[in-house]
Write a structure and sequence with these properties.
The complex is a heterodimer.
Chain A: E1 2-11, E2 14-23, E3 26-30, H1 37-45, E4 52-57, E5 60-64, E6 69-70, H2 73-76, E7 78-81, H3 93-101, H4 113-119, H5 135-148, E8 153-157, H6 165-181, E9 186-190, H7 193-199, E10 202-207, E11 210-216, H8 217-224, E12 233-244, E13 247-252, E14 255-260, E15 266-274, E16 278-281, E17 292-304, E18 307-313, E19 318-323, H9 325-331, E20 338-343, E21 349-356
Parallel strand pairs in A: 3-9, 3-10, 7-8, 8-9
Antiparallel strand pairs in A: 1-2, 1-4, 4-5, 5-6, 10-11, 12-13, 12-15, 13-14, 15-21, 16-20, 17-18, 17-20, 18-19
Helix pairs in contact in A: 3-5, 5-6, 7-8
Chain B: H1 6-39, H2 45-57, H3 60-71, H4 78-84, H5 92-116, H6 120-128, H7 133-144, H8 146-161, H9 165-170, H10 181-190, H11 195-226
Helix pairs in contact in B: 1-5, 1-8, 2-5, 5-8, 6-7, 8-11, 10-11
The chains are: A alpha+beta, B mainly alpha.
Chain lengths: ~375, ~230
């Protein structure tokens, strides 16, 4: 996908003036609510007519105010997935999936309903109505419907915001796999940096109606570390849970991490760990309440406002911790120095379960031979 | 005990025929007007809205008189109608036109409310999936505003059954030709021995109206459940 745009649009008091030139398969559009993300998505899809500028996709002019070109949405082939799936309530799942499929250009036959519904796990839902589906199922149908229209570009406007964490990260894996399999370039719009990092490598930052910069999502997360109330979020894939001494021991790329017992239904999954929850020691602390103590090498230092980010190589993976520059000087932290990182077992938060343990909830056992006696008998 | 005489039965059948034809004839135009008013902003929208709604507040007699000026043998449309050999006045067709004009705002109003309750993103989604505006109109807007269409049609049908003022001016009150239930009641009320017969037709009028309202209600409930 090659996307070039320069658009101006006035909506009551809000003014959008965005410029962007991007080449690649996926792009994130990151910004707080009210920054103009959805407005821009609507302009790209053709739902509103910009007041000025141009929009080109793979060299084809889709909008140009100078030559008065404004293709209607049905000729752009840019599919849009909304936050609230916007499924057609009077059709079944199959009817929804086929809506765009039946209207795609006839020469396009690379995508079929069976492979898409398999890829999105919808095969068993096809004949159902859409009004009793769960939020995650609805969004998967919406994505399938968009993919089946074989779009040149898939726009997703906060597609995960209305979902709970578990379905959110499940859908991310579905989404990435489906877009890659059917070779569909996408723009992923979100105000969540974690979602953005899991979906794309590159993001354009939008603020107050203008695109301020384009950079890698990783660099963005590092820059945002100081401003974000949760710091930098380390995303860890953990597996092979075993219970030990009231804690859950997980395998992290060959190393071991101890997490609190509340995670015992998750055998493997994704966890987040804030850069604020990692404490660094220069020497091995003899006794410490934190259950995880990892020996790491500092591989990189970066500034984020008044904070300093420390990238650690823990042999089994990389983590980013944050410290104030004063602490860095006192501990003499430079690239190459060896430190000990302490992490509490309760500092990890589960993002998604990829394999769950059967948790059996039972009532307290009452023996049949001695039924509880009613006081009246 | 008074029973229905043949001309009463003719009046009932004619009323039903006029109301049915008027409603069916108005449906496509009403649907289009409702669509334009619900989804489009343009200069002169207020004027169009005013024109459509005018019959709601205008005395039906005024509408009848204006139609007379329009459709009469020396009326504004006379050259067109005469050249096509069409004679409308004092025929049941004139009653249909009168009913259509008077009932039209009720039809448009209900359909428009139905359309305005549709989530705009459904229509936008259909467009981004490759549907042209008329495709979206037929496959998304029409089925989702079915409730409004049913409600509007039944209201208009009921209003047409009772149409009097405009009808008597353009169609007259000819038994067996243009005499509908309200016109027959008017005749009975004016004659000294007509009380019983008038009451009987009133009873039929009430029954018909109630039946339509119940139908209207049950349709509405069915669609609510489906939602």
């Amino acid at each position: 996908m090659k996307l070039e745009l320069a658009l101006t649009h006035q909506l009551d008091a809000f003014r959008l003036k965005a410029e962007l030139s991007f080449q690649g398969n996926s792009l994130g559009l990151f910004g707080p609510s009210g920054s103009g993300k959805s407005t821009l998505a609507g302009l790209i899809a053709g739902l509103a007519r910009p007041q000025g500028g141009y929009l080109r996709l793979d060299g084809d002019v889709i909008f140009d105010s100078n030559s008065n070109i404004h293709l209607p949405p049905e000729q752009r082939r840019i599919a849009l997935v909304f936050q609230h799936s916007a499924l057609f309530p009077h059709m079944t799942v199959r009817g929804n999936l086929l809506y765009g499929f039946n209207r795609r250009p006839p020469q396009d036959s690379s995508i079929d309903i069976d492979s898409v519904s398999r890829a999105l796990g919808l095969s068993d839902l096809l004949e159902r109505g859409v009004n009793n589906l769960s939020g995650g199922e609805r969004q998967r149908v919406a994505i399938g419907r968009a993919v089946l229209s074989s779009p040149r570009l898939l726009l997703m406007d906060e597609p995960l915001s209305a979902l709970d964490d578990d379905s959110k990260f499940q859908i991310i894996s579905y989404l990435k796999a489906t877009c890659a399999r059917f070779n569909i370039p996408f723009i992923f719009i979100s105000h969540s940096l974690v979602e953005m990092r899991m979906m794309t490598d590159t993001a354009a930052v939008i603020a107050q109606g203008g695109i301020t910069s384009t950079c890698s999502t990783e660099a963005l997360a590092r820059t945002m570390m100081e401003r974000s109330p949760v710091g930098y979020i380390n995303i860890l894939g953990l597996s092979g849970m075993s219970e030990r001494a009231g804690l859950c021991a997980y395998n992290w790329n060959g190393g071991e991490l101890l997490l609190s017992k509340g995670n015992r239904t998750t055998i493997s999954g994704l966890f987040e760990l804030s850069s604020k929850d990692i404490i660094l020691f220069k020497k091995h602390p003899e006794a410490i309440s934190a259950r995880n103590l990892l020996q790491c090498t500092v591989v990189n230092l970066f500034e984020s406002g008044t904070k300093m980010g420390v990238e650690l190589d823990c042999n089994t993976g990389r983590l980013i911790a944050e410290i104030v520059p004063d602490a860095g000087r006192e501990l003499d932290i430079v690239v190459g120095s060896v430190v000990h990182a302490a992490i509490k077992a309760s500092a990890f938060r589960r993002l998604a379960t990829t394999q769950a343990a059967q948790e059996q909830v039972q009532c307290p056992v009452t023996s049949k031979s001695n039924p509880p006696r009613s006081p009246l008998t | 005990m008074t029973t229905l005489n043949p001309s009463d039965i003719q009046a009932i059948l004619l009323s039903a025929k006029v109301a049915t034809v008027a409603t069916l004839l108005s449906l496509p135009f009403g649907f289009l007007c409702a669509y334009i008013l619900a989804f489009h902003e343009f200069r002169g929208k207020l004027l169009l809205e005013g024109l459509i709604n005018l019959p709601l507040t205008l005395p039906p007699v005024v509408i009848g008189y204006l139609l007379l000026l329009l459709l009469g043998s020396n009326g504004w449309l006379a050259p067109v109608l005469n050249s096509l050999g069409i004679r409308l006045l004092f025929s049941w067709k004139a009653a249909v036109i009168a009913s259509s004009v008077v009932g039209f705002p009720l039809l448009v109003r209900s359909m428009r409310i139905g359309m305005e309750s549709i989530d705009l993103r459904l229509i936008q989604t259909s467009r981004t999936l490759g549907a042209t505006w008329y495709d979206a109109l037929l496959t998304i807007i029409a089925p989702l505003s079915l409730r409004g269409i049913m409600a509007g049609s039944s209201l208009m049908f009921a209003r047409s059954l009772g149409e009097f003022g405009a009808t008597i001016i353009v169609a007259g009150n000819i038994p067996g030709v243009t005499q509908t239930i309200p016109l027959a009641i008017y005749d009975y009320a004016a004659s000294p021995q007509g009380d019983q017969a008038a009451l009987l037709l009133c009873g039929i009028s009430v029954t018909l109206s109630l039946a339509i309202l119940i139908f209207h209600d049950s349709m509405a409930r069915r669609f609510v459940r489906k939602d």
